[in-house]
Design a protein that fits this description.
With 124 residues, the chain is mostly beta strands. It is 0% helix and 50% strand. It is globular and about 40 Å long. The N and C termini lie far apart (40 Å). The mean pLDDT is 96.
């Protein structure tokens, strides 16, 4: 069982940047697709970005494409989300997630392990 802990959230102004981190423990995540999701107040959780096990492929929601970058450091068992040019509509709790099975294609990811989330608030 993997444990995921997000950090790096905070209160920023529109146009600012933040870097979220996800620390995994309990087992390596180096062979698993990892993802970031977010949930705004009153809304359903939505996909933000995903990265395959070796970092060679990434996928982004249209709303963050060109502004956010997902990356990973398998040696440190860490996943990151660099968020630039933040907008008020990016305000949400951001969650890190791990795929259920190893070495699966990005499109087949089935995220079953979740962190507790980190709050990101962007003021206008």
């Amino acid at each position: 069982q993997v444990q995921l802990v997000e950090s790096g959230g905070g209160l920023v102004q529109a146009g600012d940047s933040l870097r979220l981190s996800c620390a995994a423990s309990g087992r390596t995540v180096s062979t698993f697709t990892m993802g970031w999701f977010r949930q705004a107040p009153g809304k359903e959780r939505e996909f933000v970005a995903a990265i395959n096990y070796n970092g060679g492929r990434t996928n982004y929601a249209d709303s963050v494409k060109g502004r956010f970058t997902i990356s990973r450091d398998n040696a440190k068992n860490m996943v990151y989300l660099q968020m630039n040019t933040l907008k008020p509509e990016d305000t949400a709790i951001y969650y890190c997630a791990a795929d259920r099975l190893q070495y699966r294609p990005l499109s087949n990811a089935d995220f079953r392990s979740w962190g507790q989330g980190t709050q990101v608030t962007v003021s206008s």
